[in-house]
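Changelog note: in this version the structure field was regenerated for every chain. One regenerated record is shown below for reference.
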Amino acid sequence: MDDYEPKFPNLPERISRLGELACNLWWSWHPEARALFYMLAGRGSEFKAQNPVSQLFEMDGSVLDAAAKDSRFLRRYDAVMARFDADVNSYQSWFYSKIRDPGMHPIAYFSAEYGLHHSLPFYAGGLGFLAGDFLKECSDLGVPAVGVGFMYPEGYLHQRLSPDGWQMNESESLDRSRAPICRVRDEDGQTLTIKVPIVERSIYFEVWKAQIGRVPLYLIDTDIEANDPWNRGISSRLYIGDAEQRLVHEMILGIGGTQILEALGIKHSILHLNEGHSAFAILERIREKVEKGSSYKDAADQVRSTTVFTTHTPVPAGHDVFSFELMDKYFGSYIPLLDLDRDEFYRLGRDSSNSSSHFNMTAFALRMSAFRNAVSKMHGIVTRKMWHHLWPGLSDGDLPISYITNGVHVPTWIAPSLAAMFNRYLGPNWLADHDNPSIWQLVDDIPDAELWHVHRLLKMSLIAVMKERARERWKEHADLNIIMASGMLFDPNTLTLGFARRFAAYKRANLILHDLNRLKCILNHPRHPVQIIFAGKAHPSDNEGLQLIQQVFNIARDPNYGGRIAFIEDYDEELAQYLVHGVDVWLNNPQPPFEASGTSGMKAGINGVPQLSVLDGWWLEGYIGTNGWAFDGANSGSNGSEESDSEELYTILERQIVPLYYDKDDSGVSSKWVRVMKESIKNAAPKFSSRRMVKEYALEFYQNALRHANETSLQA
């Protein structure tokens, strides 16, 4: 097997490896690599959407020839490629020094979506970016992982608002030839195509690969000519609403994804499922062992002992369930291949607390995994309570579901200007050991005025981007209401709150809008004004979420609020970078206990943006009293809880946050505010990094699972 990498015929031999670099997303979290492509952009090309593959395809050959003769560019090129080779090709890594030798088989990580970079728009939200950050950190730590997922070539929806604030969706088609992905081909040089046998529907898919540093990510694409028209769109979009289509989707992910690894000869020691969407990979792994002569019991025991399952969903309604009738239609001929009868099979997925006639993907994954975890301490409590009935003889404290709190990939989410400042004050090697809390104590050495100044520049950049987006919409003949709701009047000297996430009812984007008269006074204070940026999309079928967006939009365009509320369309990874770098306070007020973890506040925190949040998800662990603000949050959905929570929110703003921010010295710096910023960085950067998270998975789960895998191989 091999990969078909895009060919760049205009690249001179001296800089020919630029093509290899462009096709590996390693460049996306290494500033020196991005700077190399920006240097080319300065020679007359455009670094389109920060996509070097597109850039290299469209560059004039004479520009590349000149770069290949430019000694300054070549010095940078050679240095970047040396760093690239050292990071990607070396066996020297934390994982190999702490956990195992390079000879063991890799860890297969399955996820329904991956948020990696806006040049690969096939993600929906937090689950995808958690998976993307996970793969990046596996690369950095040398964890021998391989990712499996879908490509969703039509799956990314751009958000546009109508003049009355209703969300409209515009689909973006992924141009495979201009994206940092490549086809996987078989031994005959043909595109690798796999057939997934499904009752009444033979479905084929092609395989693509995205390279994430050391980690390959294999992507499923059903939009191929071998499929009937009604099957081509299976992988087009995320999270299909129709139950039957969703079942087929998840069969292809779990069973087809496992067949990819088999076809490529990739033997994996561990299966790690990021949510229950891919749990059918467990079945296919068992089937392969049964086909080779194992009994079902032996095969299931071996697979269970090397399977890790991470659940992110804190409410029963969020877990996938399929009727036994529907399961019979698609698994009727598959179940006998497991050496298992029908009743035994369905008992694996039965959830007695809900419907006994449905197959619950999470219940199945919990039963068939030896290692199970929630994604925060609070979510662990909620999850154990939710699934206690699967282990009726055990107390809550003894249930075999632990937690590993999520984290974010620091090199991806840290502002470059902050990183440069950390190089000066924390030492040039701070990034290599950034999960060490002692390193971050040196943040106190940064002069207050310098940190304040860097953050103010980041806020100015955010506001400039907001205004440029509004200008682009104006060029499209957008309604004036849309333009005025886009933050055209925002002032970098004004305290700025940011609320950016998926618009779902439980996230309560409108909590701060509960008492509009009181909010109006806060926003329009003559000496200490406040401004709020909202951003986020609602699921197209979530009518309540769509109405929330419309409510925020209509308030944002109301002149009574002085242009101090903005709703920014089309929230994406690029805008998220500007927001977590540039706002002054990150606002998060979900209905407890429905925030499983939340990572947007972590991203803000590592950039010195303190959080104002309900004590739920990660903030229950992250809040230490000096790094932001917190309130308990009523855990009922009543009007009373909205009343009391909004009252707390307004009071904290009026009595603590606003006075602290505007308590400035003669030079315009609030040293007391900077103290909170520093505490935010010192707490969030080491404790809520994906480096800490992945190390915990390795030490708590992978190490033991590898021991089981090794024992099994010795017995065989």
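Spot check on this record: The chain is about 45% helix and 15% strand. Residues 448-475 form the longest helix (28 residues).
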